[in-house]
Write a structure and sequence with these properties.
alpha+beta; Sortase, Chain: A; 8-stranded mixed barrel; two-stranded antiparallel ribbon; rod-shaped
């Protein structure tokens, strides 16, 4: 009898609490509608939170069958009893020995020194020297009028000379202050012997240094503006004074006509006594260059 009365009482209390909660929720709804119109967004949001907390607290109390406590400003705090966790056995920790590996030292790689590669040197090939084909000047139509021998600094006029007959035979005249062209000798450029004589110690001494001429020296004869070039090929000193007639005739052959083209220069020697004849023979350049 007592147990039944207790159960009916509990049911009645639950219904009262539930009705109270529903009533509270309804009132809260009306209250919220009113507050939305009057309060700003910040105020009514705070009240909504408080009321929601009160509702949750009431419902939780009914469900757990415990007295309802209401705190409109402090939401209920759930108290959780910690469960004892058995202690984890502690294992003694022995630190592993630290092995410090030496940091490898970077071995510098040998510096590569580039080997200079010499650039090919350009050696210009000299252009072949143009050697003009020796040309033979035209045969002269007049005797030479000038003689030049660069090696001894000679540059003198040339004039025709003849010969005279003496007790010793014909003797060629010698020009003063000029070289004398023997008027029976050949013109330059013609086959034959072109003979020129001159003093070496008196009357202009045009052949003063003829003794210093050497083979390969150049002799140039002028006929007007035309030049005839010769190269010295022979030089002879012939004793004249005190020699027999046969020797003197033999010496005279150097000024006789020839069957080749040449120039023969004649003077006396030495400077103080004239006992010898100096003979210089020159051949045409053009003929020597072609092997003539």
């Amino acid at each position: 009898m007592v147990s039944r009365f207790t159960s009916s009482r509990f049911t009645f209390i639950v219904l009262i609490v539930l009705g109270t909660a529903l009533l509270t929720v309804g009132l809260a709804k009306d209250y919220l509608d009113t507050q939305v119109q009057q309060l700003d967004a910040g105020s009514w949001m705070l009240d909504v939170v408080i009321l929601r907390g009160a509702c949750h607290a009431a419902l939780a109390a009914v469900a757990q069958d415990r007295p309802l406590t209401s705190n409109l400003h402090s939401p209920p705090t759930a108290t959780t009893t910690p469960t004892a966790v058995p202690p984890t056995p502690t294992t003694a920790f022995s630190p592993a020995p630290s092995v410090i590996s030496p940091t490898p030292t970077a071995t510098p790689s040998p510096t590569s020194t580039p080997t200079a590669i010499p650039l090919p040197t350009y050696t210009p090939t000299p252009s072949p020297t143009y050697t003009p084909t020796p040309s033979r000047p035209p045969p002269a139509t007049a005797p030479p009028d000038r003689i030049v021998i660069p090696a001894i600094g000679l540059d003198a006029p040339v004039v025709p000379v003849g010969w005279t007959v003496t007790d010793e035979g014909p003797v060629w005249e010698v020009a003063d202050y000029a070289a004398g062209w023997h008027n029976t000798s050949a013109y330059p450029g013609h086959v034959g012997n072109t003979v020129l004589s001159g003093h070496h110690n008196i009357e202009g001494r045009v052949f003063r240094y003829l003794i210093d001429v050497e083979p390969d020296n150049e002799v140039i004869l002028y006929v007007g503006e035309v030049t005839y070039h010769y190269v010295v090929t022979e030089k002879h000193l012939l004793q004249e004074k005190g020699m027999p007639q046969e020797v003197r005739r033999s010496n005279a052959q150097w000024i006789a006509p020839t069957d080749d083209e040449r120039v023969t220069l004649v003077t006396c020697w030495p400077y103080t006594s004239n006992t010898h004849r100096l003979i210089v023979v020159a051949k045409p350049v053009w003929k020597l260059e072609i092997g003539g």
